[in-house]
Amino acid sequence: MQAPRYHYAGDVAAGRLVEVLPQHPPTPMPISVLYPKSRQLSPRVRVFIDWLVEILAPRF
Questions:
Q1: Where are the domains of the chain?
Q2: pLDDT, tens digit, for every residue of 6-54?
Q3: CB–CB of 52/31 below 8 Å?
Q4: Which of 10, 7, 56 minimizes the C-alpha distance to 29?
Q5: Fewer Cβ neighbours under 10 Å: the N or C end of the chain?
Q6: Which of 2, 57, 9 is nearest to 27 (CA)?
């Protein structure tokens, strides 16, 4: 199966799952954050975007 690494990283680390064919990783999937351009970006949305970048950027 192919799933985002964060879904099963704990199971791999614990030995419950074993990665097969690690030399053939899946193609990275793009992620987009969309918000209305006509409105000012709210602080909550800005914090959410920054959090996504922080947790996802090291994985790619």
A1: 5-59
A2: 888 899 999 999 988 889 888 877 888 887 777 788 889 889 989 988 8
A3: yes
A4: 56
A5: N
A6: 2
Assigned token pair, 5: 């690494």
Q: Going along the chain, which residue ranges are E strands?
A: none
Residue 24 one-letter amino acid: H
DSSP symbol at 23: T
In a 13 Å sphere around the CA of 51, the CA atoms on its Cβ side amount to 6
For residue 41, what are its two tokens?
Answer: 């970006």
Which amino acid type is present at position 60? F
Q: What is the pTM of this model?
A: 0.48
Residues in contact with 12: Cβ distance below 8 Å, sequence separation at least 6, in sequence order: 18, 19
